[in-house]
């Protein structure tokens, strides 16, 4: 075969004037190098890249898009590397009159967490989503999304449980003329869990805008976990589990409480964005949810 012979354009006679918002590739395997607290972690990512196609144009250079994405795996991920990749990829699509290009990256970061009391530790995983966009009109924008899983103890359930315990104690010892410390302690050991407040595995999805510099993924995760107080654990022995139970008992919160804690902590750190919080209830078959936009510039 003569390699100099132009390949035929089999779709050249299919004409349309309809513009399309996104044309490109998805489900691309891509390793990413992400900065974490103690160095750089290589993460397997699922990538997508799209450009708009105007005035019935077609024939995006998919291979050029793919080559642009490959550049992201050669250095630590940052706002600068994402901006360079998106701009370079868009400039390679001038034949189809593309004016906007977006990159979507989904991965999981693994961070080692110490046990609450014992000497053990283990790895927790955090889903991460990065969306970068470059357009000739608006320039470069970047958002970073993370997911944090935690435990939440229901305040109403805690109050009802305390009431039930108090009423049972009163009924048991109402006719007692005197009580000593040992009797009370013994009774509580047997009946302290008469009614157990319900807790739920809860999930917070936070998305913030990033302007420049390294991606603050681990910093953002730490800020959220510290605000919530009860992130899920990895390595757990009996004394760790007891400490976790104590934290849940001292830290009851509705979905509104968790959301406001997160917003306050994030705005204090200078972040603006949105959140979606879900408490996956153990009492109900449905979830309690809250969502909100927040901005450090508004307060």
Automatic annotation (TrEMBL):
Enzyme nomenclature, EC number: 3.5.4.16
Keyword set, alphabetical order: Hydrolase
Lineage, uppermost ranks: Bacteria, Pseudomonadati, Pseudomonadota, Gammaproteobacteria, Oceanospirillales
Protein name: GTP cyclohydrolase I
Pfam family, one: GCHY-1
Molecular function terms from GO: GTP cyclohydrolase I activity
InterPro entries: GTP_cyclohydrolase_FolE2/MptA
């Amino acid at each position: 075969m003569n390699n100099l012979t132009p390949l035929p354009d089999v779709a050249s006679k299919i004409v349309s004037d309809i513009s399309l918002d996104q044309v490109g590739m998805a489900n691309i395997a891509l390793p990413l190098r992400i900065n974490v607290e103690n160095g750089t972690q290589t993460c397997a990512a699922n990538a997508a890249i799209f450009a708009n196609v105007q005035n019935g144009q077609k024939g995006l250079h998919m291979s050029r898009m793919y080559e642009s994405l490959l550049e992201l795996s050669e250095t630590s991920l940052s706002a600068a590397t994402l901006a360079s990749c998106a701009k370079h990829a868009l400039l390679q699509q001038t034949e189809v009159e593309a004016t906007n290009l977006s990159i979507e990256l989904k991965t999981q970061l693994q961070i080692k967490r110490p046990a609450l009391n014992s000497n053990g530790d283990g790895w927790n995983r955090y889903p991460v989503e990065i969306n970068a966009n470059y357009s000739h009109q608006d320039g470069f924008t970047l958002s970073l999304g993370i997911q944090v899983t935690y435990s939440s103890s229901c305040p109403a359930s805690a109050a009802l449980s305390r009431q039930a315990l108090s009423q049972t104690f009163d009924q048991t010892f109402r006719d007692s003329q005197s009580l000593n410390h040992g009797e009370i302690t013994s009774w509580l050991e047997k009946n302290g869990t008469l009614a157990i407040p319900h807790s739920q595995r809860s999930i917070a999805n936070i998305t913030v805008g990033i302007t420049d510099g390294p991606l603050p993924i681990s910093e953002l995760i730490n800020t959220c976990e510290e605000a919530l107080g009860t992130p899920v654990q990895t390595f757990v022995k009996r004394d760790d589990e007891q400490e976790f139970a104590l934290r849940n008992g001292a830290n009851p919160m509705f979905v509104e409480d968790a959301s406001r804690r997160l917003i306050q902590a994030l705005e204090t750190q200078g972040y603006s964005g949105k959140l979606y919080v879900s408490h996956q209830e153990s009492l109900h078959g449905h979830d309690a949810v809250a969502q909100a936009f927040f901005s450090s510039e508004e307060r």
